[in-house]
Amino acid sequence: MDPLLVRTARREVVERTPVWFMRQAGRSLPEYRAIREKHAFFEVNRSAELTAEVTLQPVRRHDVDAAVMFADIMTPVPPMGLPVELVEGVGPVIASPVRTAADVAALQIPDIEAAVAPILEGIRIVRRELRPDQAVIGFCGGPFTVAGYLVEGKPSREFTVTKSMMYGAPEVWHGLMEKLAETFSRYAVAQVRAGADIVQIFDSWIGALSPSDYREFVAPYSRRILDAVRAEGTPTIHFGTGASTLLGELAEAGGDVIGLDWRIGLDDGWKLAGDDRAVQGNLDPALLFAPWERIEAATRDILARADGRPGHIFNLGHGVLPKTDPDVIGRLRAFVHEQTAR
Predict the structure, then answer these.
(1) Cystine design at 151: which of 140, 162, 298, 330 (Cβ 3.0–4.6 Å)?
(2) In this structure, are residues 332 and 339 in contact, taking their beta carbons and an 8 Å threshold?
(3) Which of 81, 57, 78 is nearest to 129 (CA)?
(4) Which residues of 18-42 are buried (b: 16+ CB within 10 A; e: fewer)?
């Protein structure tokens, strides 16, 4: 039998609603912080054993239905020939941003299996350690979000430089997106071949775009990555933050599951994504700091909006925040399982 998450992604009737949490492997866990005291972020991913250990920590602690591989959305970028520094409290920083056709031409399409070999071996380890009903989630960054970091040189909310390139130098923009789509397609497929049961695309900043800009400048490249995974017979999750106005466009680009953030009701988001898709979400991560009664009420509301329909994966509307109490995460997982058990 396939993992519970995979069957839900296919909108099969399942024994309970599956639960996992974006950024469940990370700063909310003391056992993760203990590892990070000794190892830098990218250093963890240079070890298959450390990658697997950090990935498995929240599964052991919370008994969630999936392990999402521990890596960064920028992981494939340094092998393309562009160094990335992860600055605490800031995010990815690029010392030499991509701004010209010459900058794009200098980017390489790497031998991705060699470049990320420890992560792929980490997937094999994690798959062996999980129960058959638990899934391994591979992931990669959405092409717009990654391109935005490369062009801006650091995180941005306005993406002024990025949009200036899109509108004023579209040939440079499309050249960059071509290389990202090719590299990230290979990266996602390599994860599947290593044992990932499902792959999620995180397009964290896609909400900065209008629907028409998304269709013109992003959709073809997201579609290429999603189609590459689907060609392997593996389901996909397509998630963007602040994307309530883009859900139809995201669904058209692809994804067996459309991720919803907390800014839209789950039932309203499902209508926009389409009845032929599963959905994932969508509790506000900040609610995990509220009294349990409020968390429970909000969770009941999400489950009521799902209304028992096949195809709902319970998750937050974005990642677990660093100071979240791990015990609350485990209690929430147990509550959803109890409420949805068939």
Answers:
(1) 162
(2) no
(3) 57
(4) bbbbbbbbbebbeebeebeeeeeee
Q: How many residues does the chain have?
A: 342
Domain that holds residue 175: 4-340
Active-site annotation, residues: 23, 27, 36, 72, 149
| CATH (domain of 177) | 3.20.20.210
Would you call 130 helix, strand, or coil by DSSP?
coil
Q: What is the DSSP string of 290-310?
A: S-HHHHHHHHHHHHHHHTT-T
pLDDT in tens, 267-320: 999 999 999 999 999 999 999 999 999 999 999 999 999 999 999 999 999 999
Number of domains, the chain: 1
* Residue 290 φ/ψ, nearest 5 degrees: -85, 165
Quick check: 200 and 145 in contact, CB under 8 A? no
Q: Provide the token pair at 289.
A: 């700091």
Amino acid identity for residue 137 in this structure: I
DSSP string, 156-217: -SS-HHHHHHHHH-HHHHHHHHHHHHHHHHHHHHHHHHHT-SEEEEEETTGGGS-HHHHHHH
pLDDT at residue 81 in the model = 97
- Distance of alpha carbon 326 from alpha carbon 59, whole angstroms: 12
Distance (Å, whole) CA 14 – CA 318: 24
What are the beta bridge partners of residue 323? Answer: none
Angle ∠(56,279,309) on CA atoms, nearest 5: 110
